[in-house]
Amino acid sequence: MTSTDTVARAAIAAAADPGLRHSFTIDGRTLSYLDFGGPGRPLLAVHGGLSEGLLWADLAARLGDEWRVIAPDQRGFGDSDRGPSHQRADYVADLVALLEHLDLGPLPVVGHSLGGLNALHLAAGHPELVSALVNVDAGIVFPHDAPNFFGFLASFPYTAPTREELVAACGPLGPTVAPALRPLPDGSGWRLPFHPQDLLATVEAARGDDFPAWSASTCPALLVHGLRSEVLTRELADAMVAARPGTSYKALDTGHVVPVEDPEGLAAAVGDFLGAL
Predict the structure, then answer these.
(1) Among 20, 30, 69, residue whose Cα is nearest residue 259
(2) 155 domain residue, yes or no
């Protein structure tokens, strides 16, 4: 067995440990999060769309005892309750509430895609909570006339009577989401780990230019770029690095979903960056 296989198996085993999952209540909603524990310094890890906190199980395993990874399920994802609104400020407020609940900060924050955008706004609006920022392939310019790249979700059901029916209804995405499907509490069927309409609303709310927020924070930052990403071009990545002093750049030969496509490379980049702080 390779070292990669060993770490992957360890990550899966850790993710299955019910002792890692915790929750608290904010504005009448349950916000769920994973605390992978360990003696290391705390690190907040924020997932992207079509994902959840379990995305970071592999990173937590690879970083070992150096870092204690804390990974929330953002509102409406995973085991967290849905929220009434999906503006950027709503997601950031949830992250602030989590850090206040855990009495943590300042600490490094890593975020992928949607999570990367929420992380950079957290750093911009609450610099007292963020000591370093890792943006994993989150582009910061989304024109108002650009197509909604999650538009295919409009036809997805949120629930189905059986797991098989829900997987089939998701078409080509079915095998990807199948491991994360949840049974409904009343036993009447299964649900997705996100609500399609919530995610569509989130993407619509994200349209615009986030360069001001990206440039507003002054903590050390790392931009991890998937060279074959359909979300973040090399031109935009170069402009992001140039626009923000104290920003390092790391390219990986992946598409947009860097944590899945090259977990080893991502962990090395994050570990090296954080270790040099």
Answers:
(1) 69
(2) no
Give the tens place of pLDDT for each residue, 74-122: 999 999 999 999 999 999 999 999 999 999 999 999 999 999 999 999 9
Residue 169 — pLDDT band, cuts 50, 70, 90? very high
Four-residue CA torsion sign, 213, 216, 220, 223: positive
Q: Across 18-173, where does the E strand assignment appear?
A: 21-26, 29-35, 41-46, 67-72, 107-112, 130-136, 141-142, 159-160
CA distance 274 to 131: 10
Phi, psi of 23 (to 5 degrees): -155, 160
Is 231 contained in some domain? yes
Residue 69 lies in a domain: yes
Does any domain span residue 108? yes
State which residues form the domain around 70. 3-142+197-275
Instruction: Copy the structure tokens of residue 122.
Output: 């957290």
The total domain count for the chain is 1
For the question of whether the overall pTM of this predicted structure is more than 0.70, the answer is yes
